[in-house]
Amino acid sequence: MGPPVIDALYLSQAAIVAAAAGAAVAAVPEARRRPVRRWQLLLPAGLAARACVLEIVHPSLEELRQPAIWLFAVTAGVAGVARGRFMALEVDQTWNRIRLPRAPEGLWFAVVLALLAIAEAIEVAQAAPDTDDLAFRPLVEFGMALAAGFLVGRAGAAWIRVPHIPHSDLP
């Protein structure tokens, strides 16, 4: 077993990859136009947000003081809110199930998030243990902020709209 700092580094990278991969897996049913429960609409966004925050916070909480990344995430969130506000939803109000007939972008953003997390985990694994200079890191942070911000905005806007959508019988 290596020094505790190195083990914590790999553990945090594993948590980031797990959350990002979980977001991609959770986005598959909605992309395949399958009915999902209302809470499942928020799952990819929540996991994406977790992966993004873990990425930004890593390696210390001082990394939270990056206004450019937060501005980028908020801008992507506004675009996500617009998409969530205007995308088609079919809602079975009786069983609290939702189908997104034409919304594959949730899966696309979640897959990009997972690929960025995996690419950075590979870069961290190949880097020397004493280096803090990872050239790919700013791109990963901005890409993850874009994907997570969009997914959170989209899911939040759709979640708020669900009670106001007329009932449809879903299989």
Secondary structure layout:
Layout: H1 4-31, E1 36-37, H2 38-57, H3 67-86, E2 90-92, E3 97-99, H4 105-126, H5 137-161
Antiparallel strand pairs: 1-3, 2-3
Helix pairs in contact: 1-2, 1-4, 2-4, 2-5, 3-5, 4-5
Distance N terminus to C terminus?
52 Å
- What is the domain total for the residues? 1
Unreliable runs: none
What share of residues is helical? 55-70%
Radius of gyration computed on alpha carbons: 18 Å
Query: What integer is the average pLDDT?
Result: 89
Count the E strands: 3
- Main beta sheet: 3 strands, antiparallel
Shape: elongated
In percent, how much strand structure appears in the residues? Answer: under 5%
Q: What's the arrangement of strands in the largest beta sheet?
A: 1-3-2
Question: Would you give an account of this structure?
Answer:
The mean pLDDT is 89. α1 (4-31) packs antiparallel against α4 (105-126). Helix content is 67%, strand content 5%. β2 (90-92) and β3 (97-99) form a beta hairpin. It starts with a helix and ends in a 10-residue tail after the last helix. The chain is elongated, with a radius of gyration of 18 Å. It has a three-stranded antiparallel beta sheet. The chain is built from five helices and three strands. By secondary structure, it is mainly alpha-helical. The protein has one domain.
